[in-house]
Amino acid sequence: MATRVLVDDDEAAIRTSLRRILERSSFEVTEAPDGQTALRHFAGNPTDCVISDIYMPGMDGIEFLIRVQEAFPDVRVIAMSGGGYQPKENVLGAASMLGAVTVLEKPLEVAEVLAAVHLALESDGPG
User: Fold this and answer.
1) 3 burial class (0-12, 13-18, 19+ CB within 10 angstroms)?
2) Is the CA virtual torsion 57, 92, 81, 31 positive or negative?
3) Is the residue at 38 inside a domain?
4) Which residue in 39, 96, 111, 31 sits closest to 72, CA to CA?
5) Are 70 and 83 in contact (CB under 8 A)?
6) Residue pLDDT tens, the chain, 127 long
7) Burial 23-55 (b: 16+ CB within 10 A, else e)
8) Is 127 within a domain?
9) For 32, how many CA atoms within 13 A lie in the half-sphere containing its CB?
10) Is residue 32 helix, strand or coil?
């Protein structure tokens, strides 16, 4: 069975790029445009790993990360950000403290994305 990865980002171009990168490496990919949609996805579709943006409308990536950790503690989360009203180092550091297995800074590199997913999947768990 293929490893399932959920890509959670409000930018369609980033979701599409990540989908292509991951599918070329035989991952099964699902997309969500925000945290609320991503959480609904979990209800009927188990996921091994999530790559989630931090800054999104509605439920942001930090709130999403907290909810995933509470409801689905075995799911590995990778947080990503290109910055926003806070320096990306601050929000990505907060995401790590809240349970993200690893973090990615935008713009993303193919090798970094694949290395982060493999690291997440090989880790002992969140945090």
Assistant:
1) middle
2) negative
3) yes
4) 39
5) no
6) 679 999 999 999 999 999 999 999 999 999 999 999 999 988 788 899 999 998 899 888 889 999 998 988 889 999 998 865 555 566 667 778 888 898 888 899 999 999 999 999 998 765 5
7) eeeebebbbbbbbbbbbebbeeeebbbbbbbbb
8) no
9) 26
10) strand
pTM of the model: 0.89
CATH number of 60's domain: 3.40.50.2300
Pair of tokens at residue 39: 């959480």
3-class SS shares of the chain: helix, strand, coil, % to 5: 45, 20, 35
Residues shown for the chain? 127
Question: Smallest Cα–Cα separation from 116: which of 38, 32, 70, 50?
Answer: 50
> What pLDDT does 6 receive?
97
Specify the number of domains making up the chain.
1
Is 78 within the bounds of a domain?
Answer: yes
Token pair for 1: 């069975």
Range of the domain at 21: 4-122
